[in-house]
Structure formats: structure tokens, C-alpha cells
Amino acid sequence: LSGLDPAQPYFQGTPILVRLDKSDAEFVDVIHTDSAPTIPYLGFGMTTAIGHLDFFPNGGKQMPGCGKNPVSQIVDLDGIWEGTRDFVACNHLRSYKYYSDSIIYPDGFLGYSCASYDVFDTENCFPCPKEGCPNMGHFADKFKGKIKNDFVKLYLNTGEAKDFALWRYKVTVTLSGRSKVRGYVNIALYGSGGNTRQHQIIEGALQPDNTYTSFVDAEVNVGTVTKVKFLWNNNILNPTFPKLGAATITVQSGENG
């Protein structure tokens, strides 16, 4: 059974007889996309873990792309009816959109087992363990025989619009140069599976010889990395023309470490 943002009002905290529960089937996977409290946020979805695998994409409360202004959302590419409906219950409806996208991307939507979404943004839940990470959506049942804990909470990020699948990489950069500057650094990954757009990984003080680590949720599965593009910008015209480079860049795939 796959639960697509199971309803919160009248169901959360009730006996398992009246709501979805892991005892309802041999394998129950759940996608939570609208789990903010009903009051004051009008969250329609359940916050509690109730399946064998519970996925909380983007933290499970606010989905990227759902905060657009109402007019742009209603007159969306999908048409006025879909846009109006999405404006009213955008987070709630993301669950089925992620599920349908997961059929097209069988290697996408990897969920990382983690204590919370805040911890997911640290190095504590990266990369996937030896047994791998389950895929949110249609292919979640590939993980059926590997579940050890009572409840498994899984976290991942998605894109703002179709195609929603993203692939997570850890990027570690050691800077080189003569003097400290302020600005930002962008990285683009090139590989056997495709190339990414530029992703900002550092902003603020850029100190040569310092090492910086950041996560990139890339819009393609890069595969074997063949090249990394490094770009920096200080946003101001500096008469001393400071130079900054990368001494080393290490890219680690979340899927296989």
C-alpha cells in the first residue's frame, strides 16, 4: 500500500482501525507533503510516521513551487483548473505528482534515513548506508526486505516543478589564492549521465586554503563525474583584481558514496 499524504483532520492520532497503518499490508510506504498543523497552517496531511517507510520530501510541510503568487499559479502551464486546484491544496497534491514522476525516474527520489529534516542538511545522514537508500514512490517496495527499525523516517529534496527528481552530491572545495575576498562560489558538475546547471555552494567570506563543504541536489544523475566547473564572483568592481581558484574539489555521490 502506498499512502499519498494521508489525511490529518479526523485521522491523526486515532486508533489504527480507522486510519492507514503498517499493519494494513505486507508493505506500507507513505509520502508526507502537507504535514504542517491544520491550525493555523491548514495542513491536510498527517505528521506521524505510520508505515514501514515514511518519506518526508523537503521536510514534509512546505513543497518548493507551492509558494508562488496565486495569479501565476492559477494561470499555470497545466491550465486554469489545475492551477486553481493546486493553489488551494498545492502541498497536499504534490504527493501524487512525486509518485507519478517516480515511475519515470526509477533511480530517483532516494530517501535518506535521518532523525529530522534539520539533521538531513548535515553530514550525519550522508551518503546512503551499505544496504542503500529506498526510492520514494513507485519503487519503494524494492527495499521491502531491508527494513530493520520499527519506523523509518526518510528525507530528500525535490525540484519546484516537473521533473521533480533530484540527485544529492556532497561537494568539498579547498580554495586557493592570495587574499581573502567576499563573494560567492558556484559549481557545475559534468558526467557520463549529464551535466548540471550552476549551483551556489559558498557565500560570504572566501578565504584561500580554507575548505568548504556543501550539498548539491542536482537535477540530473551525473553518473561518473568527468569535469567540475568552478566559478566565483565578488559582485563588485575591485581595482586590485583579486584572483581565486580551487586547489581541490571532491564530489561524493549520495547513492553509493
Short précis:
The protein has 4 helices and 12 strands; from the N terminus they run ββαβααβαββββββββ. The protein has helices at residues 38-41, 70-74, 80-104, 117-120; strands spanning 2-4, 29-31, 53-57, 112-113, 152-156, 167-177, 181-191, 194-195, 199-206, 211-218, 225-233, 244-253.
Write structural notes for this entry.
With 257 residues, the chain is an alpha/beta fold. The protein folds into 2 domains: 1-165, Alpha/Beta hydrolase fold, catalytic domain (Rossmann fold); 167-253, Sandwich (Lipoxygenase-1), CATH 2.60.60. It is built from 4 helices and 12 strands; from the N terminus they run E-E-H-E-H-H-E-H-E-E-E-E-E-E-E-E. It has helices at 38-41, 70-74, 80-104, 117-120; strands at 2-4, 29-31, 53-57, 112-113, 152-156, 167-177, 181-191, 194-195, 199-206, 211-218, 225-233, 244-253. The chain has a 5-stranded mixed sheet. Strand 2 (29-31), helix 1 (38-41) and strand 3 (53-57) form a beta-alpha-beta unit. The longest helix has 25 residues, at 80-104. It starts with a strand and ends with a strand. GO terms for molecular function: galactolipase activity; lipoprotein lipase activity. Its main location: other. Belongs to the AB hydrolase superfamily. Lipase family.
